[in-house]
Amino acid sequence: MHLSIAHLYPHTMNTYGDDGNIICLTRRCAWRDIITTVHPIDVGDDIPEAVDIYFFGGGQDAAQSSLVTDLHKKAERLHADVDSGTPLLAVCGGYQLLGNAYQPSNADRLLGISIFPIETYASETRMIGNVVITATSELGFSKDHQTLVGFENHSGKTQYTQENTSHPLGIVRHGFGNNGKDHTEGCIVNNAIGCYLHGPLLPKNPHLADWLIQKACSRHDNSYELKLLDDALEWTTHEAIVGRYV
Amino acid sequence: MNTTYHASVFIGKVTHTALRAVGRSGDSLPGLIANRIYPHLLRDLSKQCSEGVILVCGTNGKTTTCSMIAAILHASGTALIHNRSGSNMTRGHITAFLSKASWRGTVHATLALLEVDEAVLPVTLSTTHPRIVVLHNLFRDQLDRYGEINTIAKKWLSALRSDLPKDSYLIVNADDPQLAYIAKELNHPNTIYYGLNDPTVGSNSATSVVDAYISPASDKPLHYSTYYLSHLGNYRDPGSPFSRPQLTFPTTSVSLGTSEFPTQFTVGPYISLSLPIPGLYNVYNAVAAVVTAHILMVEPKYIQQALAAFVTVFGRFERIPVGLHSLYLCLIKNPAGAGEVIRTLPRDKPISMAFFANDNFADGLDVSWYFDTSFEHIAPQISWSLFSGSRANDMALRLKYAGNSSHPTIIENTNTAITNLLQRVTHEDVYVLSTYTATLNLQSALRKRRLIANYWKEK
Q1: Which residues in chain A have their CB less than 8 angstroms from residue B410's CB?
Q2: Is A27 in contact with B365 (Cβ distance < 8 A)?
Q3: What are the angstrom distances between the C-alpha of B254 and each of A12, B197, B209, B234?
Q4: What is the mean pLDDT of residues A66-93?
Q5: DSSP-assigned states of every residue in B107-135
Q6: pTM of structure
Q7: What is the ipTM metric for this complex?
Q8: Is the pLDDT score of B130 beyond 50?
């Protein structure tokens, strides 16, 4: 098995340990003898022909506005891949730009590329802290591992633009989530996940990392099953955060 | 001076004396209490220094830079107020003054040297009317506390605009684009730029997390001809005339040392130096100290003597002998600093390491920077590893993904972990990396075991 991972804007959008998600994906693949190639895709770069997993991290406001024009040039391709089921993970700034729009506090409104039916408005308060959510059943996680843990740090408040058809990544049990009000966190569309959870997200949530890898492998081989790994340390780290806050 | 001033000094000094009597360092609380009684205390204390106040601010290297400046001034015989423990908020500044003030509130020193927390700089600027301000660097550090780097840079610029005295010196690390941009916007008459001019110790590609990738002048990615340390380097902006300013004091002929050989370099045409501690980050620290001392008109021989005999401050690659072997203590706070610490660890041989990782407020609540730190450069060599602190699991997990193949011992309780650690040191050297509050805990535990002295009892 060989997976091609596209890392969108790794130089400008890498604020909160975002590379950790790439490290996690490549390591967990390597431990299973799945070969990975990571393609860093910056402003002006073309997306390679075949992409199995997309990752898009967070950045400062200035970084976000510097790449939004380029992102629109890539929009058609990203839509096509998400529609056909390519797994994608977008965190914080990446999540916001893949929504319909982001309104910064002292700058022009940035139009996103509408992968996720969300809109984000900068607010005065920063939402900072550890987060624990119960993940949506769409992810099919086992009964023992329903939670996702991470750390959020954002002033943008995110709302769904389609009330009834929007799917949250999960329900907040500790922390703020999308907007600190409606207890939702993140959004899931097909196999594309957007969220505010960094920390980074994947190392402490091995079930989510494997969900992305499994989705990617299944598109090559329907019957492909991931080898089990020793995740004792991953789960101890995960449970320590759940135990502290929930 | 009024009655409230005298009362606040008196109560501050009583608190300080009481804390020292019970064996505590008391670097913050006296200043905190005294400032509550009299909010203008720092202003009234600092204006008594006839030779002025020096402020040193930046993300990494403040404590080491200040302690180098202090060592140089000590060698030249200047009496100094200095918040040497690294307590760098207003309360720590006041405490430093109180320890050199009489019970009547008269300050017995002509010059003050203050290490200043990034978020506190605007307050310190407006209260102390400094003679020299050193802007050392701006790295990603505790985003949960300080916010984005751009936000800090904006706050510094506006504080310097309103409160930097016209006749004071602004000493700026020109290799840091954010700081050079602040200086350019400020256009202060006495601006001194230091930086490196020696591509042999740099790289032409970014080696680690780059924080100032986007030009503050044009929002375009900067072009670098040389990267020295993270985003510090020789850069130009493709979208505007902004580029690294002409260096007033270029540093050349850098030869990086090891634990056996000293680091050597030349600052300007001015002075050749030898420094007994490793790491390019320490070259930056020393250059900032040398330039500051030069502005203070210290004779070069004192600068050379003091740096050649420089001993690291606590937790900055400090060696603690235990029997036949040693513990090396290294404070890690953020990706850039931790990356430089990792670059100075021994290479190409198995290494025993301990990690003490906390997520208290002063450490940063957000531990995602563990994954921004290039532990990959050391993890495969680790033959024994111990993890402790409130985020021991997160750190152990980070090292697992960096390629640590040793079996990690995880002991959350600091004291139990230290016992385990000291047992290991009876067999071989151990390199300890710890976050800020974990370093303080280690310090106090090692003091209790009489492996290190109380620093306030040193000379």
Answers
A1: 236
A2: no
A3: 31, 9, 23, 16
A4: 95
A5: B--SEEEEEE-TTTHHHHHHHH--SEEEE
A6: 0.77
A7: 0.95
A8: yes
